[in-house]
Amino acid sequence: MSLTVVGSIAFDSVRTPFGERDRMLGGSAVHFSLAASFFTEVRIVGIAGDDFGDQQLAVLEGRGVVTDDIERVSGGKTFFWRGRYEYDMNVAHTDDTQLNVFAEFDPKLSENSRSSEMLFLGNIQPELQRRVRAACRHAEFTALDSMNFWLENEREVLKSAIAEVDCLLLNDAEIRELTGESNLARAARAAMEMGPGVIVAKRGEYGAALFSRDEFFAIPGYLLEDVRDPTGAGDSFAGGFLGYLDGRRAAGESVLDHAVLRQAMAHGSVLASFNVEDFGTERVASLTREAIDQRLRDFRRITHFEAEPAPAP
Amino acid sequence: MSLTVVGSIAFDSVRTPFGERDRMLGGSAVHFSLAASFFTEVRIVGIAGDDFGDQQLAVLEGRGVVTDDIERVSGGKTFFWRGRYEYDMNVAHTDDTQLNVFAEFDPKLSENSRSSEMLFLGNIQPELQRRVRAACRHAEFTALDSMNFWLENEREVLKSAIAEVDCLLLNDAEIRELTGESNLARAARAAMEMGPGVIVAKRGEYGAALFSRDEFFAIPGYLLEDVRDPTGAGDSFAGGFLGYLDGRRAAGESVLDHAVLRQAMAHGSVLASFNVEDFGTERVASLTREAIDQRLRDFRRITHFEAEPAPAP
Known about the structure:
Distance between the termini of chain A: 55 Å
Strand content of chain A: 25-35%
Shape of chain A: globular
Oligomer: homodimer
Helix content of chain A: 25-40%
Largest sheet of chain A: 9 strands, mixed
Structural class of chain A: alpha/beta
């Protein structure tokens, strides 16, 4: 079993009401990889500068992530993002973005990365997403994330990229923007018309919703008293979701089975909840499967109810 | 078993992207009563003008609601609200508010209303809430709703009213405003310090969360493709929640039992989901228990997952 992810590798400087950190390891592909690594072999495809060194590689490799397809540009600098969150941690304020080597990213996939059964196209230029999708001919299940920038500037290419994947993961506001439908359930149906059979709407602290051809599923966010840094939560959600799916797929099950999809959504939520408990990758990189399984049981307990009818009045 | 509710009785004129209606029956006590009427005997306490007539009474009495304590002011006019919703139906825009007889509301409770085992203090002036609370000496479980207006203008009286009830139901933004805590879980703990052992945070289309001394519970909103008019959804949630609790209480169970509270949250969500499917009280007033029980089963199906661990990678 294996899962290839393409996306950004970054250094993030983040300030929240609970502290600040300078130049932490980050980026969508990094957060995704760490979260998914608890369930399957992850192969990361990305680009970094020569400020990305052994210390950063060790975080990924310490979780068994295959880093052979991280291109290191000699003399180049890694993508850098500086941002902050006010007390409403649902909204990130960007103070600085330096694309650096990421501006010239042209994903190069080894035979190993091409051969994965699962593929996650993180938020990069949609034409590059299409090229990576085409290269991974054996992928049995492919998913794509994007952002409002591509929706607004490369809408047609993005729609072509969306048409070529099995699963679309976006923030709920982005699904509404993509389709022009204000109602999320209708927006998800409209997105499905574009091609993917599975639509996942990420809703920040409110959780996530999943729509397939004949079913839907909603899950609240895991309620935490301590949220230190929400950066990367959506990518950790995607990593937990797809990593878990690949584990079940490799065990011979269908990733389109509703029960499996629901469990994958729960795993994504659990990984996202760990992500936000500390800055950057600190919490997820040091997690254990035991801690994940324990929180999953807690999560199930605090979301479940029996459909016991009330006595008649 | 019986549940007394005090709150507003209104005529609402509402415009949404899906139509408009003029002078529909509305108000927090009305929406609450109709939703709760499926589970227990409801006694409504409110005030109306002589524009409130047999047609409006018939809607309530058709659902078995006891209307003896609706005071009709001869020559007076009923509370009137005119509002509209844009495509984001989470936000109501008020175009006109005429308090009319509601400005002079001084709740008068018959012995029957005073003797209920459960009490819901809908969103009215907090000093009036305190007076009604004191009058209902036999109430075993009491709950209170409020709004930002009272938070900002009668904060200390409101805090006294909150201290005297068992359950506080507010929008999540209001719980944050009440406590000055941006994190919902911390805000709920802080609200609990004020007195109530149960805090329910209403989160609009995103569902609701419940906090008790030693547990919490989160439920997503029921996802609907057709949302016509969200007016009254929070009151229908409260009615479904407390009505169901009273039914279980009368059957000899503890309303503080976690499993019962969770089922009550699910019933509240189901009633709120019906509320928004049509204008005003149209959908809830014509519901059946069969339709409620069916949606409850659907809701359970689309929110449940098994905590099955993934195979090890």
